Amino acid sequence: MASNSQPPSQTVGPEYRPAGLKPIATVSTPLSQKNVHILPQTPQLIALLTMIRDRNTGRADFIFYSNRIIRLLVEEGLNHLPVVGQEVSTPVGRSYAGVKFEGKICGVSIMRAGESMEQGLRDCCRSVRIGKILIQRDEETSKPKLYYDKLPEDIADRWVLLLDPMLATGGSALMAIEVLRSRGVPEDRILFLNLIASPEGAKNFADRFPKVRVVTAFVDAGLDEKNWIVPGLGDFGDRFYTM
Ligand code: URA
Description:
Layout: E1 9-11, E2 24-26, E3 36-38, H1 43-53, H2 59-78, E4 83-89, E5 95-101, E6 104-111, H3 118-124, E7 129-137, E8 144-150, E9 158-163, E10 166-167, H4 171-182, E11 190-197, H5 199-208, E12 213-219, E13 222-223, E14 229-230, H6 236-242
Parallel strand pairs: 3-12, 6-7, 6-9, 9-11, 10-11, 11-12
Antiparallel strand pairs: 1-2, 4-5, 7-8, 13-14
Helix pairs in contact: 1-2, 2-3, 2-6
Uracil binds next to helix 6.
Family: Belongs to the UPRTase family.
Pathway: Pyrimidine metabolism; UMP biosynthesis via salvage pathway; UMP from uracil: step 1/1
Protein name: uracil phosphoribosyltransferase
């Protein structure tokens, strides 16, 4: 069923500016699910999202600004990975108590739109392994169907960053988690990175897999009668790859 609740608005701008001089913008719908992490609604993020939502933004700019948001998502996703203490010596002869990442990771993109997020992951994690899953709606049953998957052999020993920019009903993402679980990946080692989610898709997904962490830039107002996210940005894959 179509939904379109009123999302929250707030003033957006740097702290030094008086509230009366800041524009009011729509920000992410908050969700109570503890496993959904919404990026801080900073002026920068809202400006980037404004660019990619604009129907008049051409493909080159769409790619450029999407990549900047993807980078923020990957950096935030990496904060959820475990670290261990690591002490190093600096060039001035002092020691510094820091940390380093523990464990192996891989990316898994849900084709085709999820492939747009692979470069952002590679930019942060050099020579990261990346698997792929193709899920499409079955014409006869209208249910999501798995058509193809190619995943690292040792995926069960890795943390998995699952990549899909748009979470509408959540059907594909739910099926992708089932595929990962069937390969032995524990739920609590999966991070789902996503640019824009619908509230119903995000809630459905987060309730069904409470140990999977979702990192999203924005939860929108809802879905329309054709299951487009609204206000959304249209078809992400078309705008990134073909328009
Ligand atoms: N996929 C998209 O690309 N856009 C939507 O609005 C929903 C799913």
